[in-house]
Every structure is written in C-alpha cells, then in structure tokens.
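Bench notes, afternoon.
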Amino acid sequence: MNIKTFDLERIQSLYENTVPINLTESGFHPYTLKELLSSEKIEMLTETVLGYGQTNGSNHLRQTIADLYPNCNADNILVTNGSAEANFIACHTLLEKGDELVMMVPNYMQIWGIAEEMGCIPKRFHLLEENDWAPDLKELETMVTSKTKMIVLCNPNNPTGYTLTLKEMNTIVTIAEKHNCWIYADEVYKGADLDGIEKPSFYGMYDKIMVNGGLSKAYALPGLRLGWLTGPEKLIADSWAYHDYTTITAGILSHKIGEIALQPDMRKKILARNRSMLNDNLKVTIEWAKQFKDLIEFVAPKAGGMVFMKYKFPINSTELSDWLRTEKGVFILAGDVYGLDNHFRIGIGAEKDQLLRGFKILSDALMERFGV
C-alpha cells in the first residue's frame, strides 16, 4: 500500500468514541433529528423511498447549494459523501503524477497524503504564528512556479481558526493567475465566523478555482456525510466521472435533510446556534488558559470550532495527549499530527458542561505532573 496512514483521522477514530471526555472535535456539538426538524418534516422523511436518488446530488439540493455562491448554478455543483470525498475527487480530477502543488500549513493534511500517493510533489507555504497565523504570501510567491498545478488552501483554517482577509485572497488569486494554476480552497468552516459576518468564498474570484463545502463542520451535521464541490461546469462534469468510481452517491436521506438545512432561514438558525456556542466557549477557554500565564498561549480563532494552543511544558505533544487520554480520561489532539510539536488542539464547539469538565481534568493533571 503506497498511501500513508492519515494520522489525524486514525487517532481520532481510535479513541474519540471511547474516551470519557473528548476535546478533539473540530466541529460543533451535533444536532439530533428532533432538534433540527419539525414533526412534519420528520414525518415527511418517513415517506422517503430509500432508493439511490440523483447520483451527483438532487437538482433541488444542488441549486440550493449553488445559491450560496456568486454566479453559480446547479451544474457547478457535485454532491459528495462528505468533504473528505470531495477532496479525494478534486485531487484525482485536477492532478496527475509529477504535478507540483503548494499547500498552506498548518492544515488538514488529507490532500497532502493523497497527492503523495498519486506521485505528485506537495510543497508547503506557512501561516506564521508570530504574525497571529497570517499567511506568508512572500513565501507563497517564491514557491509557486510554472510547474505548480494547484495552490491548496483551508479557509477558515484548520487548526488555527485564521480567516484570510479579502486583500490576502486577492493576492493569492493574483499569484495563481500569473502562473495559470488552480486554486483549491477547503471552505468547510465557511459561516462559522465568531463575529457573525460571513466571509466571501474564493469561488468566482478567478476562472480556475474549485472549492469544497459540507455539513459536517459549520452546520453541526457530520452524521449526514454530505459534502460538495463547486467549480466550473466542465470540471464538475469531470469530477462526477470520478465520483462514479468512489461512492456513486450520497444517501437519499442526507439529500433530503441537506435540502432542509440549507434553506436560508434554517441555515441562518443553524449558524447562529453554532456561533453562540463558539463565542461562549471561547470565553471559557480564555479564562481557563489564564491560570497558566505564559505556559499556555494561543491566538484566538476568527472562525471554526477549535483553538490551537502552544505550550511550554517539557513533554512531546503526542506523549502529552497519550498520557492525558490513558491516565486521566481526557482526549486532546497532539500538534504532532500537524507537524507542530509543543502544540495541541482543543475543540470548543462542544457543549459547555463537557468543555468545563475537560478543563477541570486538564488543570488537575497539569498541576500534578508539572507543578503549575
């Protein structure tokens, strides 16, 4: 097998459902169907014929998604099984063996692994922690060449919560245009802005842009496994051909519930609920970190469902995560999965009571081991 184990997903899959306190989630506390839907809508679902449905996404669902983007129609949309499948299909549609891509880091590293397995050459450009995680666009400009096939972004960013400014987005587009390369933007956290002002998509800023989206993160509906690709019609048609070889179609119930969740009023309600949770939990997190003074520090996220913390304890991040999980029953994500030791990620989209219990265990454990 040529493909590497995707450490972030494998580690979470192994432990997130068995540990007493899981603080690794990168989204928001999921809805139940009863919370999300009226009794009439639930009754409607019971009448659904459990067939395949339209394999690239129902016409209504694709148009509902298209309405989220400028100058977009249903033919610009491919519905997938989560944004993870969207990433896989995008790579196989846009890249060939030997192609170079330049990827923002830190990042959700699925595309890096797929690209290496395909025989492509991934390269890094960095978000700078000392600059509040703003991108080093001068570095990007030096990294992108005539050999570059694709620039890969995550905006809002996982794990830092940084959101690109419009000026930064325009600069990235200018660099891509200069070298005639694609921009692929992972936008699964779009709408999860702490300030309540939804930032623009990359889609429509340049004719060689593809973006993904999905209901797992900003919408708190990960169990639906509903994602999508948005891009030029010809590229989406080509992507559908790869989709025929992967999962064929997302589930019919996911199509139906997705159509409901993305209606303007419902979408606004979902995003408001999650934004309120995020802002409340960020305040709790800031207060918790104060007790450690300069031993734990972080740049507050602008969007997304997590905080990426830097620590100064004399311990490797994987060792710290393993010790807390096995000995104390609380699970945090080691910075090692992002290639950044002395960091860990905590999900702040959890229910507040769960977060507070986790922080209490963390405080006691760090006091016990490091005397702080």
